[in-house]
Amino acid sequence: MTQLAPPASPSTSTADSAAAVAREQSLRAAVIAEGLFQSGATRVVVAPGSRSTPLVAACHAHPRLELRVVTDERAGAFMALGVGRATGSAGVLITTSGSAAAHAHPAVLEADADAVPLLIISADRPPELLGCGANQTTDQSNLFDGATRAALSLPAVHRDRTDLAQPGGGARGIIEEALHRTRGPHPGPVTLNIQFRKPLEPVAFEWPPDLDQWRRRGPPTQPNIAALDPDAVAKVRAIADTAERGLVVVGGLRTRQERQAARQIITRLGWPVWADVTSGVATSGNFEPLLADPTLRRELAPDVVIHLGGRVVSTVLLDWLAECKPAWIVVGPYRGPYDPR
Length: 341
What we know:
By secondary structure, the protein is an alpha/beta fold.
């Protein structure tokens, strides 16, 4: 009787290589989680799946990250968008591989239009498992072309490398770059696509000395706030000084600091204020009923408008200002010409 030989066991070198890959992936994921925390992106939305296991496990293990699990990627992306809008720090969504990340597209478009910091981190298969008829394979390299501030990627760890190059595989630099690009100079959405190999389960690892020192340092005590361009400030002052009937328009403001700055400018100018419903700034006046009177509509017409923050949603205001044709100074997150009509 013919006997079948037992299946060959993996060679020691192959097993060692797989173990090294697992350690490197776990370290990379831990570095990404720490980078989120140190950059202030402490609320993470997870749309779970198999391929994202290393990163989700690392975020779950981090003592200072708050995770919210949402099984639908589209809903999760809008939840992350809301975090970015409310806090001014990047809202973060972690998705698995395949079409999952594509469901974030509507939220990415909103973040692009409203200049809201948003980071979509998608787990991906390694190169040899792409375009081969396997389940959940999609070209995830640049899903939202034209709508993102950056489309970054982190390649898979290679089984045939023994040194594994940089500690963390460059994960620290890429997560810091991703979060920096969400914030400015023009805030908005960024994608980070990370390839993971099996085994995907987290394993024990040791922090390299340089990364361990970075991890123990903790986040900066003060946020980095970009200084205003002195030339731009001088031009705004010069135009404001010539105004006979100035008007401050306050659009969407993302953070408490922005609202405080807007109040200071309003107090300094002493002009009438139109605060849009999206601004978060309360005022005692309401222009809309006054503008129903044609005489008041003409008498109140401003010659200079200083627009603080994001876009406004009041069509009454926009139609009125289109008639007035004032000098319009926008201090906000827009690139290029601004015409809200």
